[in-house]
Design goal:
heterodimer, A: alpha+beta, Rossmann fold, 2 domains, 8 helices, B: mainly alpha, MetI-like fold, 28 helices
Chain lengths: 372, 597
């Protein structure tokens, strides 16, 4: 069964390094998302695995078979890698009907007509587009085209499915709908999915493992909730989560054996690591990272702030609070409304607050935070 | 709103004023000539008094129509044979240019061919050079003794006598026209292939289709509309080509419509010529209508994604180097070798003898000698050549300025009022001259402006007439460039200036023109180059005082003074190439922007 292994894969376009020494293993049956801002090399990575792009260096194995190796001079063409590819703009052939689009791949496998017809009917039913078989792509809506593209990709029953931002051309409502469809599809087919997106929410909700990239470099490759709660560095922490994480630049000092004291104008905090002890240089620059949902509004707290703005959206309310020089974001369940400039007390919950190195941005520890 | 107020608000907008002005002037300059042409087919011309007995000039007659279409053998020789010759060579040339241009376009955009940037630059050369360049080169190489005169380089080098069918007539015309228009096909088809969403082909690769199957089932059907419209455009260009059949066909009396047109209009029966011009215009219009119908019927399939540069290229493997090298050699043969032959021919004293002893500078820098070329001095000492050169450059510059500027205005007005009937009307009028064969266009202007007309005095023999005919004929290039440039520019850019109270003139010169500078300038470049190398359009209108280089070349060639003709041709080619390269380097304007669209 297919397991995809990348070893030191590098892709250069002239002087520009699109992907830099990327090594990762995609397990059989995984749903892996390649996540990152545009230009980070995620699409290039996907295209290299599929064989549409030739890496400059490195080695790629699919299901134990080397499909690319710069050293051994192996470069298996995409059609021999047994993969499916779903393109961002669907790439449906405009001059063929829905049925012809789907049957094209099966004809190439020399299936007989009867079998092709059955397979098309099965796929059309599965994706709920049976009534559109005779239509041309231009006569379908975006969502329907998307389904046709999926049907065409699934038709040959590939064990590995690559998807390049397949939902980015859909409107918000349809995107949510297709997300759950894709997740079901993954369960039903049991195939390995590799999925490129710049939408962190898609990555969070869909994948079993998320691969975060920046400037061609792998930042973190772990299950989405790990990425969310234990980001490897500041970039990852900032990229994942909405509203974004609060970052407080500060200087920290070790106190009481294991605790860290952080003093800022209007803020005196104590950080207790739960990930093992943390030793800082005296006055070391650190960045404190706190997810909005871990900042609570507690009237009696000694830590005080001023309401900057309140943004209720019904189910939850985003509250922006000015504390000293920092503008913090808190998410509160339910709808509440504060007056602008009202005085509130703040507290911190859970043990998911993070301390990053102020210079390198690497994660140093996570733990509890308390105001004193 | 009252009608008066409506009119006031309509006329306050500059684009409406331009549009109305264009509608009136273009109607006068394109539709009116057409009517005048139709009239010319049914009246007696002064030179026809001998053949139409008992008639006075200006009498109505159906003599011409009867002679051209319904007079047995005469009609056969006069019209039908040249007509079918025209159709056949145009089809043949289309085939050559589509296969060659399309093939190169595919190799450049879809394969790992070597030396792509050289090939894609040099492949355009034959289109930039005058069309007869290759025709003359063909003659320089392959002419034979059978027609009289000296044999060409090929015979001189190998001793093999070229057969007539190979040296003259349909075969070389098809090849030469095909080569000349291959870059045109390359630019159009290449543009489509470049813009075609590469994912469409990649999707097929993933689904295990072979390269050939992808080409046949995916690529071809998708670019088919583009290929068809390229076919039609090349066909109508070939149909109206004059210089190539004149050079290669005349020695064996192989006539096409354009050469017949020239003979009849210059001879005793202009009425015949006007009918043939009309036939060509009808054909051209038909082709445009087919094209528009076709484009309208099948919406363009191409979608620009910006990811196309990522396409995985077809590996030519063992064919890569031989194919690339072969293509480079071929391009050198059609783009550079002709120039070499012109140089060689212009130094040969006695034609046909290519030995070093026979080389002379006589035709370049010699004093006039009575025994050579009618006593004409070498072209570098010949004041008439300088006059022609000056006329050519002056004419091309003025034509380019007029056509280019009108093109910018037309593009502006047409795009701003897009969707209105008047806009569509002006758009079609501005494109109409493209369909008129140059020779026929010249003929119409000759018939229209030879005598005073409305408020315009007789322009025959004047520089103004050449400017007028050139500017109108090349307006389609300029207006296409202008329209394309304007379409890419959102209206808000101008409106932002409008809100700030920037006057129209400043909006044009300070905002719109600078943003789309290179596209607009392409609209100046194309008329300039076309005008520099134009023959058919001017050949009927020229008088000794305003001869241009191309017509002088044609006259020298007709007289059989090959060396002069070759020297002048070399001069024209060098000027055109130098100007094109300079303008391209300085401003970024290029001819493929003009036609590629």
């Amino acid at each position: 069964m297919p397991e995809i292994i990348l070893k030191d894969v590098t892709k250069r376009f002239g002087k520009f390094i699109a992907v830099d020494k990327l090594s990762m293993t995609i397990g059989d049956g995984d749903f892996v998302t390649l996540l990152g801002p545009s230009g980070c090399g995620k699409t290039t990575t996907l295209r290299m695995i599929a064989g549409l792009e030739t890496p400059t260096e490195g080695e790629i194995l699919i299901g134990g078979k080397t499909v690319f190796s710069s050293e051994k001079g192996i470069d298996v063409s995409p059609d021999k890698r047994d993969v499916g590819f779903l393109f961002q703009n669907y790439a449906l052939w405009p001059h063929m009907t829905v049925e012809q689009n789907i049957s094209f791949g099966l004809e190439n496998l020399k299936w007989d007509k009867e079998r092709i017809r059955d397979r098309i009917a099965e796929l059309l039913a599965m994706l709920k587009i049976s009534q559109f078989g005779k239509r041309y792509p231009s006569e379908l809506s975006g969502g329907q085209q998307q389904r046709v593209a999926i049907a065409r990709t699934l038709a040959t029953g590939p064990k590995v499915l690559f998807m390049d931002e397949p939902l980015s051309n859909l409107d918000a409502k349809l995107r949510t709908e297709m997300r759950s469809e894709l997740k079901r599809l993954h369960a039903e087919t049991g195939s390995t999915f590799v999925y490129v997106t710049h939408d962190q929410l898609e990555a969070m909700t869909l994948s079993t493992r998320t691969c975060l990239m920046q400037d061609g470099l792998l930042q973190q490759y772990e299950p989405p909730l790990t990425v969310y709660h234990r980001p490897a560095n500041r970039f990852v922490a900032d990229f994942v989560g909405s509203p974004t994480m609060n970052f407080i630049e500060a200087k920290g000092d070790n106190v009481n054996l294991d605790e860290i004291k952080i003093e800022l104008p209007g803020m005196r905090l104590i950080f207790t690591p739960t990930s093992g002890s943390l030793t800082l240089r005296a006055g070391q620059a650190i960045t404190l990272g706190i997810r909005p949902e871990f900042i609570r509004i507690e009237e009696r707290s000694t830590l005080r702030g001023k309401i900057y703005a309140t943004l209720p959206s019904g189910m939850e309310t985003v509250v922006r609070i000015q504390v000293g020089e920092n503008l913090l974001t808190s998410v509160v369940f339910g709808s509440i409304d504060f007056d602008v400039d009202a005085d509130v007390g703040l507290g911190f919950a859970g043990d998911h607050c993070i301390v990053f190195d102020g210079e390198s941005g690497e994660k140093l520890a996570h733990g509890k935070l308390a105001a004193v | 709103m009252t009608a008066a107020n409506r009119f006031k608000s309509f006329i306050r907008k500059p684009h409406n004023v331009i549009l109305v002005a264009l509608a009136i002037s273009l109607s006068f300059l394109t539709l009116f000539p057409l009517l005048s042409l139709v009239r010319d087919t049914v009246i007696v011309h002064p030179s026809e008094l001998m053949s139409i007995r008992g008639s006075k000039p200006g009498d109505l007659t159906i003599f011409h129509w009867r002679k051209v279409f319904f007079d047995g053998e005469t009609s056969q020789n006069l019209f039908y044979k040249p007509f079918w010759n025209t159709i056949n060579i145009s089809l043949g040339a289309c085939l050559v240019s589509l296969v060659l241009g399309g093939g190169v376009a595919w190799l450049i955009t879809r394969s790992d061919l070597r030396w792509k940037s050289f090939i894609s630059t040099a492949f355009i050369f034959p289109y930039i050079m005058p069309s007869w360049t290759l025709a003359m080169a063909w003659l320089n190489f392959f002419r034979n003794r059978l027609i009289g005169g000296a044999p060409g380089l090929f015979t001189a080098l190998t001793g093999i006598e070229t057969p007539n069918w190979f040296a003259y007539g349909a075969f070389p015309i098809v090849i030469v026209l095909g080569l000349h228009y291959a870059p045109f096909a390359y630019i159009l088809i290449g543009g489509i292939l470049r813009n075609m969403d590469a994912n469409l082909e990649e999707a097929a690769v993933i689904l295990k289709a072979s390269r050939f199957k992808i080409l046949r089932r995916i690529t071809m059907p998708i670019v088919m509309p583009a290929i068809l419209s390229t076919f039609l455009l090349v066909f109508s260009s070939c149909m109206s080509a004059f210089a190539v059949p004149a050079f290669l066909g005349t020695p064996v009396r192989f006539q096409v419509l354009t050469t017949q047109l020239f003979r009849t209009l210059n001879g005793l029966n202009p009425g015949y010529g006007y009918i043939m011009a009309l036939v060509m215009i009808v054909l051209g219009t038909l082709i445009l209508m087919i094209n528009q119908w076709f484009v309208g019927k099948r919406k363009s399939f191409t979608t620009v994604t910006g990811k196309s540069s990522n396409i995985s290229l077809v590996k030519l493997r063992s064919l890569r180097t031989p194919l690339s090298a072969g293509l480079v050699l071929f391009i050198l043969a059609v783009a550079v070798l002709p120039l070499v032959t012109f140089a060689i021919e212009s130094f040969i004293l006695a034609p046909g003898d290519y030995s070093f002893k026979n080389m002379t500078l006589q035709f370049w820098a010699g004093e006039g000698r009575v025994d050579i070329g009618g006593g004409e001095p070498g072209i570098l000492l010949n004041k008439y050549i300088y006059l022609g050169l000056w006329n050519s450059i002056r004419l091309s510059v003025v034509v380019a300025l007029v056509a280019g500027s009108v093109g910018v205005l037309a593009g502006y007005a047409i795009v701003r009022t897009r969707g209105t009937r008047l806009s569509g009307y002006v758009n079609n009028l501005a494109f109409f001259p493209y369909l008129m064969p140059s020779m026929a266009f010249g003929a119409i202007y000759l018939s229209m402006f030879a005598k005073p007309n409305l408020f315009i005095p007789s322009l025959y023999g004047s520089f103004a007439l050449l400017v007028l005919v050139g500017a109108v004929k090349y307006l389609p290039f300029a207006s296409r460039a202008g329209i394309n440039a304007m379409l890419q520019l959102s209206g808000e850019i101008e409106e932002a200036g409008l809100i700030l109270g920037v006057p129209w003139w400043k909006r044009m010169t300070r905002i719109i023109f600078p943003i789309q500078k290179s596209s607009f300038l392409s609209g100046y470049l194309l008329p300039f180059i076309s005008c520099m190398r134009e023959l058919a359009l001017f050949v009927l209108l020229i008088t000794p005082a305003n001869r241009v280089l191309t017509t002088m070349l044609f006259q020298y060639n007709e007289k059989g003074w090959n060396q002069y003709a070759n020297a002048i041709n070399l001069m024209i080619v060098v000027i055109v190439l130098v100007f094109n390269t300079a303008i391209n380097k300085i401003t970024g304007a290029s001819i493929d922007k003009g036609i590629g669209g």
